[in-house]
Amino acid sequence: MLYTGARPRFVDISRKTWNLDTAATARNVGDQTRVVLGTSFAGLPLDLDPLEGIRDRVVIIEDASHALGARRKGTLLGGPGGADMTTFSFHPVKAITTGEGGAVSTENDELAERLRLFRTHGIAKDGVTGSETEGAWYYEMQALGFNYRITDFQCALGLSQLQRLDEYIAARNRVAGRYRELLSGEEQVALPPGAQDGDVHGYHLFVIRVLRGPEARLQTFNALRAAGIGVQVHYIPIYRLPYYRDALGYPQDDCPGAEEYYAGAISLPMFPGMTERDVDRVVSTLREVLA
Predict the structure, then answer these.
(1) CATH number at residue 182
(2) Whether residue 169 sits in one domain with residue 158
(3) Mean pLDDT of 80-95
(4) Helix, strand, or coil here: 214?
(5) Following CA atoms 268, 272, 276, 280 in sequence, which dihedral angle do they give, to the nearest 10 degrees?
(6) pLDDT tens digits, residue range 170-225?
(7) Are residues 230 and 187 in the same domain?
(8) Measured between alpha carbons, how far is residue 248 from residues 235, 243, 244, 255, 264 in Å?
(9) Which of 63, 82, 95, 248 sits between 20 and 30 A of 40, alpha carbons compared?
(10) DSSP character for 20?
(11) What is the residue range of 59's domain?
């Protein structure tokens, strides 16, 4: 957004879902709002229902980088009835990979054509009419674009991976189910929000919250790392980062839900190849650390 000259406006997360609070977002849409961008964080589908009343005023973009293969009300994210545009990531840690890169899906023909121009230097060849002296070689640069083309061999890898997407998502849900089973009675942590009826969680991440505050989170994180458990924290709130805080002057106290989440968040290992024994080891180590 900043590259285009637009200025992002942050809206807090929902304490219930840890996704963007779309009801609050809808209330904050003003005359100068052009785009609403929300992330299906950790693979949990973003609640788009509160945005229905503003669809005629803004473009809705869903960042589904964590949620390829997830479903909202039975429909794959990026399909009919979703956002105006949905973005996906094919980074190696995602549900499937092409090595790097991503994709955008849309049901809107005009947006699809603009995306194609943006992808390829703004150059159009199909449907353009040259002068009488031009031939089949003729092309036009109709907009300012980039070189965002994916390579053929990356596509081949991605297509082969795509055939196993449902298998990978089912495996991630099995891992998440084991975590939930083992941690359901642990009073010192909060489990991540689950999918609603009709939805399928992508479980790119399995995030818990340590409930005793930032110092306890830090101690827990360091102890798990020392024990060989590859935990991480996803993510530092954007407005805290020096560029946004110092260069752009974003306030640090507008998103209490995000602050509460960040104070305790730890991402436990999550990948399709995890076995029950792997999950059991993570949980037993976590319990030892919290004891």
Answers:
(1) 3.90.1150.10
(2) no
(3) 96
(4) helix
(5) -10
(6) 999 999 999 999 999 899 999 999 999 999 999 999 999 999 999 999 999 999 99
(7) yes
(8) 20, 7, 5, 17, 27
(9) 248
(10) B
(11) 2-162
Token readout for 243 is 């560029």
**φ/ψ bin of 198: left (φ > 0), alpha (ψ from -120 to 50), beta (otherwise):** left
Report the percent of the chain where pLDDT is more than 90. 93
My answer on whether 217 and 178 are in the same domain is: yes
- pLDDT band at 132, cuts 50/70/90? low
Q: Are 48 and 37 in contact (CB under 8 A)?
A: no
- 136 and 41 both lie in a single domain: yes
Q: What angle do CA 1, 193, 285 make, to 5 degrees?
A: 110
Q: How sure is the predictor about 131, in pLDDT bands with cuts at 50, 70 and 90?
A: low
Last residue of one domain, picked from the residues 105, 134, 162: 162
Bridge partner residues of 13 (DSSP): 20
Measured between alpha carbons, how far is 171 from 47 in angstroms, rounded to an integer?
Answer: 24
Q: Which residue has the tokens 């299906």?
A: 40
- CATH assignment at residue 144: 3.40.640.10
Six-digit token string for 201: 């969680």
Our count of domains for the chain comes to 2
Q: Are residues 28 and 169 in the same domain?
A: no
Residue 86: C-alpha distances to residues 8, 111, 185 (Å): 18, 11, 37
**3 state SS of 211:** coil
Distance (Å, whole) CA 57 – CA 59: 7
Residue 112 and residue 114: Cα distance in Å, rounded? 5
Residues 262 and 276 in one domain: yes
Q: What is the pLDDT of residue 125?
A: 87
Residues 38 and 128 placed together within one structural domain of the fold: yes
Cβ atoms within 10 Å, residue 276: 12
Q: Which residue is listed with tokens 């998502």?
A: 169
R_g of the chain computed on alpha carbons: 22
* Whether 9 and 150 share a structural domain: yes
